[in-house]
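[step 3/7] fold_predict: job queued, chain A
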Amino acid sequence: ASKTIRGRGQAFFNPAPRQTPKAGPDGRDRPVRCTPPHPPEFRRRAVELARTGDKSVTALAKSLGISQSCLSNWIRQAAIDEGHLDGLSAGEQKELVELRRKARQLELENEILKRAAAYFARENVLPK
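[step 4/7] structure written:
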């Protein structure tokens, strides 16, 4: 029963609904953020352990304190990064996110310029 918490204009995914948001100084709820990501070395070592095949992915994930789907995603992403599977590498995913962010920013700036041009065009046409 995960839920999305809204506050201060942004939505944050709350993976642990047992935690409740704390009220900020203005009385509004502060968002509960997800736990920080695991370090790359931890991920790399977890993938290596999974590839040895001594334990099942589920058992290994449980012993590491992460979900089975999380470990499976790490294994899949490692295979993509190494070229064994088709897909976007971690670097390509990061670049794609940055390019999409930049495109959104440029679209917003373009819209502002269009509105400003329309405003100033109206100002010049109307009698004073």
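[step 5/7] annotate
The chain has four helices and two strands.
Residues 4 and 13 are 5 Å apart (CA to CA).
exit 0
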